[in-house]
Design brief:
- With 490 residues, the protein is an alpha/beta fold.
- It folds into 2 domains: 223 residues, P-loop containing nucleotide triphosphate hydrolases (Rossmann fold), CATH 3.40.50; 230 residues, P-loop containing nucleotide triphosphate hydrolases (Rossmann fold, 3-Layer(aba) Sandwich).
- 51% of the residues lie in helices and 12% in strands.
- α1 packs parallel to α10, α5 crosses α9 and α11 runs parallel beside α20.
- The longest helix is centred in the N-terminal third of the chain and has 25 residues.
């Protein structure tokens, strides 16, 4: 792809100046439209070392209001980022709706550098390419404009620039060992870059090549491309996105109405099992910390089903330094302004730690679906996006446990009434709980569909029978222990 690229013809200086002035004005004018239409714009500037990415970026942003853009320079991953999933450090930097994020360097540089240095194998390189394509496609499908620019210069031009920078004391710091290695192994790098660009060149997020020979010419190319892509994106903000077919193997789970809810445990049996299971989980917590295995437990279920008490018995077995519980409510404004999975990506645990979600990313296909907080295209598309998200976590090495806490309608009514009539429990009951109860059948149908479409072999759903809370607590502990042991033995 890069090898076959034909450079565009550079215009005369007079034409270049005239077009650049017009492009700058157009880009500046578009910023208000971006804000009004709530279009998030992610601009990736990648390419050869010393190709002029930084200087061109500095020129382009002069046309923009600095309150509405952010520049991200992706250096070496921090110690914390190394302990998170591959896409974590990129996902957490995506812009809010109505704003720009400019990436000086990106996941392309990270992945190809590791591959060229022999630090990741072919299989891992391929897996990361798949992750990147999913990431970029999901951003586009969720309303982001992703503009990917590769700055290209010849080996001789790069060598001249590196020598010039190295010879000046005020610029020598800008030349890294990697830049020199890259120039020395230009053909090897070219082959890898060509492959990467070809495999990640998607209709929703194509690559554009920038002739980096002249700064002013490069600025014109970048600015005109941005103006053109933004103009198209602003016209297409209301368009629906094609739904992708699920490609992950699914595991059969019964419908909610088929789950038996009459299981019971007497107090003595419950106490014995609870303490035994908590002791086992405590021992496993030490082992997963030592082996750096992350664990993610997600709870969904009916109001008053007993999620809180279930979580309390689970965490009682854990070292408080090694877990965190995330109660998920309605998204905050800064969360709502980003991809709906952003607030979950940013809450993922480090390896060796445990994250417990009291309500999860499945809100999109339940509450948001039924309350009209997103379009039908959004929630229909989310099944596959969530499966992709969970596959990322599984491939990272995480143990994934997903619970639906099930009770019947009569049990919920009895618990609602008890909360209403008990002063110290009244904070637990709201008008919203009573209103949601009126939509029981709609929610049950949505949950059955959710479970059927997202119970994958790597992240299956487990339904807890919680008419008897003690039984559900033991069920949950057993399931978490079983999942951790299975991953440790694999």
């Amino acid at each position: 792809m890069l090898k076959e690229w034909v450079k565009p013809q550079k215009p005369s200086n007079e034409e270049l100046t005239e077009r650049l002035q017009a492009a700058r004005a157009a880009l500046s004018a578009q910023q208000m439209a971006i804000k009004e239409k709530q279009l998030p714009v992610l601009v990736i500037m990648d390419g050869w070392g010393a190709a002029g990415k930084g200087s061109v970026l500095g020129r382009v942003i002069r046309s923009l209001d600095p309150r509405f853009f952010k520049t991200e320079t992706l250096g070496k991953p921090t110690e914390d980022e190394v302990r998170r999933p591959f896409l974590y450090r990129y996902f957490r930097r995506i812009p809010e709706a109505g704003k720009y994020s400019f990436f000086d360097g990106s996941w392309m540089d990270d992945v190809t550098r590791l591959y060229l240095a022999g630090k990741i194998k072919e299989s891992e390189f391929k897996r990361q390419l798949t992750s990147i394509k999913r990431f970029e496609r999901q951003l586009s499908d969720n309303g982001y404009l992703v503009v990917k620019l590769f700055f290209h210069i010849s080996q001789n031009e790069q060598r001249k620039r590196l020598m010039t920078l190295s010879e000046e004391k005020n610029t020598s710091w800008r030349v890294e060992k990697w830049d020199l290695w890259q120039n020395k192994h230009y053909e090897e790098c070219l082959n890898v870059y060509d492959r990467y660009l070809d495999e990640t060149n998607q209709f929703v997020a194509p690559w554009y090549f920038i002739d980096g020979k002249s700064k002013k010419w490069a600025e014109l190319q970048v600015t005109e491309l941005l103006v053109k892509n933004i103009d198209i994106a602003l016209k297409n903000t209301a368009h629906s996105v094609p739904l992708l077919q699920n490609t992950f193997p699914l595991k059969s789970v019964p419908k909610l109405s088929e789950v038996p809810l009459d299981q019971m445990l007497d107090e003595e049996t419950y106490d014995k099992k609870l303490h035994k299971l908590q002791d086992r989980l405590a021992a496993l917590h030490n082992e997963i910390y030592r082996k750096k295995v992350p664990v993610i437990v997600g709870y969904e279920g009916w109001d008053a089903a007993g999620k809180g008490g279930n979580i309390k018995r689970l965490t009682a077995a854990l070292d408080p330094r090694g877990f965190e519980v995330h109660p998920i409510a309605s998204p905050e404004p800064h969360e709502k302004a980003r991809h709906y999975l952003w607030r979950f990506w940013t809450r993922l645990p480090k390896d060796g730690h445990i994250a417990i979600f009291d309500r999860t990313w499945y809100g999109r296909v339940m509450v948001e679906r039924l309350e009209g907080f997103c379009s039908e295209n959004d929630w229909q598309r989310a099944y596959h996006e969530i499966n992709e998200f969970e596959k990322e976590l599984y491939d990272w090495g995480a143990v994934l446990v997903k619970f639906w806490v099930q009770i019947d309608k009569e049990t919920q009514l009895a618990r609602f009434t008890d909360r209403q009539n008990t002063p110290e429990k009244q904070w637990k009951i709201t008008d919203e709980d009573w209103r949601n109860r009126e939509k029981w059948d709609l929610y049950e149908n949505a949950v059955d569909e959710m479970i059927a479409k997202t119970s994958t072999e790597f992240a299956p759903w487990q339904i807890l029978s919680s008419n008897e809370k003690k039984f559900a607590r033991v069920q949950a502990l057993e399931a978490v222990i079983r999942a951790i042991e299975k991953r440790l033995d694999s």
